[in-house]
Amino acid sequence: MKTLHTENKHNKGYDFSLLKKEYPKITNFLIEKHQHTTIDFSDPAAVKVLNTALLAVYYKIVRWKFPDSHLCPPIPGRVDYIHHLHDLLPEQDKVTVLDIGTGATCIYPLLGNAVYDWHFVATDIDPNALANAQQIVRHNKLEDAIEFRYQKEESSILKNIIQPEDAFSVTMCNPPFYKSEEEARGANRRKSRNLNNNPVRNFSGNSNELWYKGGEKAFLHTYLYESSLFPNASRWFTSLVSKKENVQSLQASAKKLGVTEFRIIPLQQGNKVTRIVCWQFSQPQYQKYLKEKQNL
Question: Which CATH architecture does the domain made up of 67-294 adopt?
């Protein structure tokens, strides 16, 4: 079974002894189950404390606060995306990443900077989420490494964001999975029934985090189309894709739009299977564009 990336610090699971020692706040959430120390993963408060502890202990993120209404990202899976992007990129002095939909937690920029010293431009359609993310960045003194841009057009992804001077190493995204709030809530109820717990379990997330008109497929195709409008703005365009059936249609559309390389990177954490799709346009053209920008 494929597991986390070999460079992922969480490949062997959670070291609760270390977390308890380095982040005592987690102590009140520890339980014993099948003779092993763990937490109650059906408890949103416990999940949030666990991921806060992981950031503090392994990535030196000293303050990571956000409203409970927003998604709490699982750190092992999020940092896996970062490691796979590192494999995708050639060795270079400075990597600048465009993070689409950074959310209130700003998780990818925090991890990418902590692990590889990358610089980020982080975007979102929610000004409140951006304000919270900016506060996290300030508290961790990362203002020089992480920049924010507000997407004022909810249906757009790269439009209004990409600037003429931009030359990103890679663009990344964790897209909304559902078509509507009703669909998202239905999926959460099914998950809750399977786990025999309170139906409010982990149903955090504002509309822009969980659903997009037309769902994941519509979001991905909009993203792909808009990337073709800015083919030289990023060496690679990438996204997580939850639904396997969306990859084939995306790949077919990519060929029509002039994509010269399309890759699929499988991901698996426990029973959860997903993938990263990656595409790029003509590299000689990108290299010429990058050289021109450097000479300005």
Answer: 3-Layer(aba) Sandwich (3.40)
